[in-house]
Amino acid sequence: MNFKATVITNVEVSPGYFRLRLTAPQFFVTAASPGQFVMVRVSASIDPLLRRPFGIFDVGVMATEYPDVQQPFLDILYKVVGKGTAMLAGFHHGDQMEVLGPLGKGFGTGEPSEGKVLVGGGVGLAPLYYLARELVKESRVHLFAGGRGRDDVLCITEFERLGVETYVSTDDGTLGERGLVTEVLERYLANGTGAKTIYACGPFPMLKAVAEIAGRTGIPCQVSLEAYMACGVGACLGCVVKGRDHSEATPDYRCVCKDGPVFDHTELSWEQRL
Amino acid sequence: MNFKATVITNVEVSPGYFRLRLTAPQFFVTAASPGQFVMVRVSASIDPLLRRPFGIFDVGVMATEYPDVQQPFLDILYKVVGKGTAMLAGFHHGDQMEVLGPLGKGFGTGEPSEGKVLVGGGVGLAPLYYLARELVKESRVHLFAGGRGRDDVLCITEFERLGVETYVSTDDGTLGERGLVTEVLERYLANGTGAKTIYACGPFPMLKAVAEIAGRTGIPCQVSLEAYMACGVGACLGCVVKGRDHSEATPDYRCVCKDGPVFDHTELSWEQRL
Amino acid sequence: MNTPDLSVEIAGIKLRNPVMTASGTFGYGAEFARYMDLESIGAIITKGLSIRPKAGNATPRIVETPGGMLNAIGLQNVGIDAFIADKVPFLRTISTPVIVNVYGNTLDEYGELAGRLDRIPEVAGLEVNISCPNVKQGGIVFGTDPAAAYEVVKMVRDATIKPVIVKLSPNVTDVVTMAHSCADAGADALSLINTLTGMAIDLAKRKPVLANITGGLSGPAIKPVALRMVWQVARAVKLPIIGIGGIMSATDALEFMLAGATAIQVGTANFLDPTAAQTIARDMERYLAEQGIADVKELIGALRS
Amino acid sequence: MNTPDLSVEIAGIKLRNPVMTASGTFGYGAEFARYMDLESIGAIITKGLSIRPKAGNATPRIVETPGGMLNAIGLQNVGIDAFIADKVPFLRTISTPVIVNVYGNTLDEYGELAGRLDRIPEVAGLEVNISCPNVKQGGIVFGTDPAAAYEVVKMVRDATIKPVIVKLSPNVTDVVTMAHSCADAGADALSLINTLTGMAIDLAKRKPVLANITGGLSGPAIKPVALRMVWQVARAVKLPIIGIGGIMSATDALEFMLAGATAIQVGTANFLDPTAAQTIARDMERYLAEQGIADVKELIGALRS
Ligand SMILES: Cc1cc2nc3c(=O)[nH]c(=O)nc-3n(C[C@H](O)[C@H](O)[C@H](O)COP(=O)(O)OP(=O)(O)OC[C@H]3O[C@@H](n4cnc5c(N)ncnc54)[C@H](O)[C@@H]3O)c2cc1C
Ligand SMILES: Cc1cc2nc3c(=O)[nH]c(=O)nc-3n(C[C@H](O)[C@H](O)[C@H](O)COP(=O)(O)OP(=O)(O)OC[C@H]3O[C@@H](n4cnc5c(N)ncnc54)[C@H](O)[C@@H]3O)c2cc1C
Ligand SMILES: Cc1cc2nc3c(=O)[nH]c(=O)nc-3n(C[C@H](O)[C@H](O)[C@H](O)COP(=O)(O)O)c2cc1C
Ligand SMILES: Cc1cc2nc3c(=O)[nH]c(=O)nc-3n(C[C@H](O)[C@H](O)[C@H](O)COP(=O)(O)O)c2cc1C
Ligand code: FES
Ligand code: FES
Question: What is the pTM of this model?
C-alpha cells in the first residue's frame, strides 16, 4: 500500500544515523513482517526523483496525548550517505512523506526455540531489531554487531533490552572487540552447540563471508541484500541479483525487491558485482 | 552581489500574498535603489532550476534583540502563482536562500517637489513602496492601486502611513471604486494641475494603457516591466522587449534585467507579446 | 455537466481513456494489481518480449540522474513460451487491453514473435520495439536506419493481423523520416519516444555507474525532447501517435495530446508512484470536466500557434 | 602537498584550468565581471557572433523545464563590427583567453567571420557553431550532415590560423561520424554538446510556450546525454574535446574529464549562480589536492571499465 506518513520524531541516534518514526495505517502495522522494507518518497519535487528503500526497523502502536487514541507507527533507522538521506535528516515533526510498503519477502522465523544468530554490519542492523523482537518470544537470540567505529554500532542497548545477547566488534577497536564481525561470529560458532539459524544484513562482502561460514558449517542462513531500486515492486528489473544457477544461457536473476530482500544464502550466486 | 540571506519573517499579508523579510548585507541596503530587483534561488536542488525575480519592496536597518546590533534587511512582497513562489511561502524564520542583487535600472526620481503619481496593479504595487518612501521626502505622492478584488490590493495602510494619498479600485468593486485603475487615473489627471511624473508597475495591458495616457497627456512616465528571466544580468538575452525603433532589419531589443526593469514609456514599442 | 468522454481509439484498439503504461515500467501488469485498479487505465504495454528468455545486462542496471534515470536492463524477459504459459492467464482476468512490446535480434525473430502472438486472443496488439538502445546486436540499427526499420515493420505487418504500433527511438537526426518509413511499411500507429542514450560516471570509482556503460534516459528530464518529436511526427504523418517521455501528471499528458498524440504512456512515473497511471487518468477527467470539454479527442493536435 | 596543476592546453590555447564558460550563457564576459573574478577561469567563450547584427527570435525565448531550460534566443547578437568596436576593448583588459563562437547563414559568412577575427589579437581562437537549433536557415543542416559540416570547417580552417574548435550538435544519429568529418576538415578541437531540440506547451493557452515553438534544452537534464557523447567521441577521434552539458559542480566537470574531455564549459549553471564557473574551478583544485592528484591531466580519459 501507498500512504502518506507524518513524521512523529526524527532523532540522530549516533553521528550521521537517524531513527525516524512515522505514522502508519493500522493495516501496515498488521501486514508488516521483519525483513520487509518500504520505499520512501523523500521529496515531492523531481530531485531526488526516485524513492529510497529502507528496511523496517520497527512497527507498533503507541500512546498519544489522548488517552483513548493509539497511534500505529513505523520506524526506520537510516544512515546519511547521499542526497536523499541528507534531505530525510531535515524532516521535522509534522512533516509528511509518501511511503510504499510493506514490500518484499522478509525473514523466515523458522522453528521456534532454536538458537538464533543475528549478524549486522553498520546500518545493516536496521532490519534486525524488528526481527529480534519477534524471535525473542520463542528463542534465545545472539546478536553480532560490527561497524567501522563506535559511532557505527547502533542501538545495542535496545537489543539488550529485548534480552538479546550482544557481541560488538569494530574495525578500529573503538567499541567492543577489534576486528571483523565475522571473525567474532566464527569463534562463537566454533564453541557453540545446538541447532541454530543465522540472519545477516550488512555490506555485501560481510554477507559473502557469513554465507561462506554458513555453507562450511551447514547452519541455515538468511541474508538481506541491498540493490539500486527504482520501483520496489518487481516491475523494472533494476534490482536483480544472480541466483545460484545463473548463466547467460539459463538466466536466473532474482529481484531483490520482490524475491528478496531476504534470501536463503544457498539461493544466490556469490560471484557478483553489487 | 550574491549573498546568502536568512529569513527574518515571511507573513501572509493577504490571501496568497506574502511579505518576506530577509537579512541583507549593509552593502546591499546602501546600493539598492527603488525599482531594482533581486533574483532569489528558491531551492538548492534543481527543482525549480532557475532563480526567481522579485522587486525590492523595501530595504532598511532594524533593531535586534541586542541593543547595539542593527540588522540590515530586504523585503519582498510576492504572490503565489506557481511552483517557485509556493515553495517560497513555505520558508520559515531562520531558513536560508541565495539572493543576487540589487539588479537592473530602477526608477529615476526626477526633479523634486513635483507631483508624483504611482500606479500599481496587483502585486505590481511591490516596487512602488520603496519608491514612495523615497519620493515622499520631497514630493506629494498619489497612489492609484488596482486589483481584481479586495484581496489583491496590498499594503494600502503602509502607503498611507508614509503620507501617500491613495486611490483604490477593484475589478469587482469589493474595495474602493469598481473599475480599472487606469480609469481612475485618467479622471484624476483630467482634473489635476501641475507638473507630474507617472511611475507604473503591473500587468502589461495596464502598463500599455498608462503609457497611452502618458503619451496623450504628455506626462513623463516610467514603467516597470516583467519578463521571463534566466540570468538577471544581461547575459542570456532571454528577457528582452522591443525598443521603440525595433525592426527585423534594425533590431532594438532591450534587456528587462539590465536595461530595465524600469523604462521610460517612450523607449519601448508597445506592440509586443509578453 | 456530463462526465467527459475520455475514450480514444488507437489502430482499432478501443481505450477507455488515453493513459497506457509504458513497456518495461509496469512489468506484466500483475505487479501493480495490488496498488491500483488495472481497469482504470486505457491499456497496458508489457515488458519487451523476445523469442527466447533473455538474461539482460549485469548490474548495476539503473541510476538516478538529474530529473531522470538511466536504465540498462538489457531486455531481460521470460521469453515467449513462459509469457504465454505464465503471464497470459493473468491478463485474461482483466478487461483492459494488453499490448505486447516485442523485440527481435533478427528480422526473422520479429516475424516469429508477431506470428505467434497473432494467435493469442488476449493480445490486443503489438508494439514493435526497434529502438532499445541497450542491446548491441540489432536493436539500435533497426531503430536508426529508415530502410532497416521498414524491413522490420513489414515483417511484423505480414505476420499478424493485430494492430501494429511501432515505437521510435529519439536517438536519430530525423525522427520524421523514421516515422514515414514505418508508416510506409504498414504500421497502424507510432509510439514515441523511447529512451535517449546516456551515461553516468562514478567519480570516486572512476568507472561508469552502469555495468553496461551506457543506458537509456527516461523521466521528466526528457519531456521537452519527447514533446518536440511528437509534435514533429504528428504534423508529418497521418498515423495516430502515442506520446511517451517524462509524463508525470495529467497536465503533462494533455500537453502531449495538444502536440498531436491520441494516447500517452506513463513510464518512469510508475516508479515514483505506483498509482501514477490511474491518478493521471482521473486528473485528466477532472480537468476536462472543469474546463467543460466534453470529449478528450477535441484536444488531439489542438495546439494553436 | 603542492598545489595541483590545473592547467590544460586546447588546440594550442593554454588554459590556467579546464573551466570555460559556454557561449550564450556568459554574454561577452563583462556582464559577470562584478560577480566573479574573470581571471579565475580557463577561458571565456562569447555569445554566438554573426556578420550582421541579428535580432533573434520573438519572446518568450526561455522557459524552465524539469531539471533544465529551453532557449530560443535565435542568436541575437551585435554583429562583428560592433563586436570589434564595443566588446573587444573590454576583452583586452583581461588575461583569460577569449574564444569567439561564430555562426554563419552561409559557407561564405563562416569564411568571412573567420577571416576578420583572424586579425584580432584579443581573439584566442574560434568556436564554430554548426549546431544551433534555433535558426531555420542553415544552422541545423551544417550541424547534422557530415558533408556540410566538413565544408564549413574547411572554410573556417582556410580563413584563419587561429585555433578552430568545432561545436557539435547532439541532435544526430551518429555523433562520431560528425566528429570525424570535422577532424578531417582540419578542426583543432571539438566541443560538445550544444542543446537538444525540445518544446514546451502551455496547456491553459493551448500554445507552445516559446514564440519560436521549439528551443534548445540545456541544464542538468541533458548531462547523461552529453557525457555519453563525449565518451563516444573521445574514444573515436584523436582531437582534444571540450565537454559541455549540465555541468553544475566540480564533480560533474571531473566526470566529463574522465569520459575524455580535456576541458569543460559551464553554461546554464551561470544563471543559477553567477559565480558558478569560478566555484567549479576552485572546487576542482580542492578535490585534486584532497585526492593527492598532482595534475588534472591525469584524469583525462582515465575512466576504467
Ligand atoms: C531493501 C533495502 C533496504 C535498505 N534499508 C536501509 C536501512 O534500513 N537503513 C539505511 O540507512 N539504508 C538502507 N538501505 C540503503 C538506502 O536505500 C540507501 O542508503 C539510500 O537509498 C541512499 O540514498 P541517498 O539519496 O542518500 O544516496 P545517493 O547516493 O544520493 O543515492 C543515489 C541513488 O543510489 C541509490 N542507493 C545508494 N546507495 C544505495 C544502497 N546501499 N542500496 C540501494 N540503493 C542505494 C539510491 O536509492 C539512489 O537511487 C536499504 C536499501 C535496500 C535496497
Ligand atoms: C523584474 C521583475 C520583478 C518582479 N517582481 C515581483 C514582485 O515583487 N512580486 C511578485 O510576486 N512577483 C514579481 N515578479 C514576478 C515573479 O518573478 C514571478 O511571479 C515568479 O517568478 C513566478 O515563479 P513561480 O515559480 O511561482 O511560477 P511558475 O509559473 O512556476 O514559474 C515558471 C517560470 O516562469 C517564470 N515566471 C512566471 N511568471 C513570471 C512573471 N510574471 N515574470 C517573470 N517570470 C515569470 C518564472 O521565473 C519561472 O522561470 C517579478 C518579475 C520580474 C521580471
Ligand atoms: C526500467 C525501464 C525499462 C524499459 N524497458 C523497455 C522495454 O522493454 N521496451 C521498450 O520499448 N521500452 C522500454 N523502456 C522505455 C519506456 O517504455 C519509455 O519509452 C521511456 O521510459 C520514456 O518514458 P518515461 O520518461 O515516462 O519513462 C523502459 C524504460 C525503463 C525506465
Ligand atoms: C540562453 C542560451 C544561449 C545560448 N547561446 C549559444 C550560442 O550563441 N552559441 C552556441 O554555440 N551555444 C549556445 N548555447 C548553448 C550553450 O553554449 C551550451 O552548449 C548548452 O547550454 C549546454 O550546456 P549547459 O547545459 O551547461 O547549459 C546557449 C545556451 C543557452 C542556455
Ligand atoms: S526495484 Fe524494480 S524490480 Fe526491483
Ligand atoms: S535575464 Fe538574462 S539577459 Fe535578462
Answer: 0.96
